[in-house]
Structures are given as C-alpha cells and as structure tokens.
Amino acid sequence: MLDIHGVSIDRGDKRVIDDITMRLEAGQLVALIGENGAGKSTLLHAFAGDIPYAGTIDLHGRNLSAWRAAQLAGIRAVMEQHAPVAQGMTVLELVMLGRFWAQQTRGEPESVSGDIAKRWLQPLNLTQFAHTHIDQLSGGELQRAHLARCMAQLETNLPGEQLLLADEPTAALDIHHQHLALHQLRAFASAGNLVLTVMHDLNLAMSYADTVVLLKNGQLHGMGKSRDVCTAVALSALYEHPMHVAQHPALSVPMVFAEPKGGAVRQ
C-alpha cells in the first residue's frame, strides 16, 4: 500500500533521513520508535507530503506527488503533534473539519457531516465536550478531539485501503485514554487500513503495533514484529541506555524496562 524507496531528507547541510526503503501493507498498525532526533516525525511529514524529499513514496502504486489534495483527503488523514486550530471553535466543529473534503467534493450536507462527527465523539469519550470551546480543553482532551477529526475524515465508502498518519497520538493522554485511543487505531488497522504512528512509550508500541520500525540517526535499524526486533541488545543500542526485555505477564508480547540512571530509589 505504501512503498518507500531510497528516501532521504536534508535539513540545511544535515541529512536527517538517510536512504530509507520499506514497504508497508494495509491491515496493520506500524509504530516508528527511536530516540529524539532520530527522524521519526520528519519521516511522517514526508509521508504527509509536507516537506521535500529525495527518493520515491508511492501510495496505492501511485507517486505521492501525483495525487490531488482532494483525492488524498478521502484516503489519508494526518494527526499532527501540534495541529493549528482556530480559537473559539467547539469540539464538534473541530471534528466536523474532517468532513470538509466531502462537503466540497461530494456535496455532503452539513447535517450528514455533523452526524458523522457526533458518532466519533462517543468512542473517544468526548460526547460531553461537543459544545465546549477547544480553548477550554486540556491537552489530552484536545488530542482526542484531533483523533476524532481524523477518524471522521476517513469514514467513507470510497474503494481501497486508507492511511492514517499519527505523530505521537498518546503523548498527552492518561493511561485510560492512551488505551482508548490505541484501541480505535488498532480497530481501524484491523479493518484493512494502514496506521503509521510515532510512539515513545515502548510498551504501548509492543502491545498494539503489528510492526515496529527502529530509527536511529535517520537510518533504518530494524523492522518487524516486536518480539523479533525489540531485543534488549537492539533497544539498548537504539537509545544508548541499558534496557531489559521480559514477557508481558498477560499477553504474548515483550515488555521493556529501562535501568534507572544512578540506580533505583530506595523504598
């Protein structure tokens, strides 16, 4: 579904993405992991078409640059870390922005857009905030509203698999809402779509991702199932910090434990 070949990105005189090649199939949630500055968000911005790059990125066998914005809007949504929003807008109005493409290209009535937006408030625990202005939300509540916007955007009967790009979608969320959000992303992927997300919480990545991509200094350092590529040796090298990996007590996935700097606190 998403083919990346020889992608490199320069920022000034520094190469921040160096010759990345990989193929990502629909039906999976893919987590990009790595230390700060590894190139995770930069690579996601390239997939979103926001920044120039060398190499090729093909979506459904077609070069990303050949897609018209109106076409992409129905099959690809982007959840940024810090998406700009107009102050004074309500949560429902923000989520309805995801339907703007359908109103413009398909003549979707505003009432239909509103119904779709309302449907996505409930699974992300936002119904009570429908008419709340976004400047009154916490960071986590706003983050969930942006995820609802993306999910509403991709509710369509268009043929073919869809792509959701999410840059740290759980960064501002508490534990309950982290799992709530990832459950929705997991369900979207399981329905035959592709979710590509940047994640810093390694244990969440292990629990929800079908494929984990290890990035370091803009280079691909590993890709595969977490139990295969997320070894203690690999993760310790990736983060330049001592790591330990054990089996999750309830799931057949690894768990990661980082050694405290200077030793654990005395209890």
Topology of helices and strands:
Layout lengths: L1 E10 L2 E11 L3 E6 L6 H8 L6 E6 L2 E2 L5 H5 L2 E4 L11 H6 L3 H7 L3 H12 L17 H15 L9 E5 L7 H16 L3 E5 L3 H7 L2 E6 L2 E6 L1 H4 L2 H8 L3 E5 L6 E5 L9
Parallel strand pairs: 3-8, 3-9, 6-7, 7-8
Antiparallel strand pairs: 1-2, 1-4, 4-5, 9-10, 11-12
Helix pairs in contact: 5-6
Protein name: Hemin ABC transporter ATP-binding protein
GO molecular function: ATP binding; ATP hydrolysis activity
Function: Part of the ABC transporter complex HmuTUV involved in hemin import. Responsible for energy coupling to the transport system.
Please explain how this structure is put together.
This protein is of the alpha/beta class. It has a domain at 1-75 and 160-169 and 200-266: P-loop containing nucleotide triphosphate hydrolases (Rossmann fold), CATH 3.40.50. The protein has 10 helices and 12 strands. It has a 6-stranded mixed β-sheet with strand order 6-7-8-3-9-10, with helices on both faces. A 4-stranded antiparallel β-sheet has the order 2-1-4-5, covered by helices on one side. Helix 7 (175-190) links the parallel strand 7 (163-167) and strand 8. The longest helix has 16 residues, at 175-190.
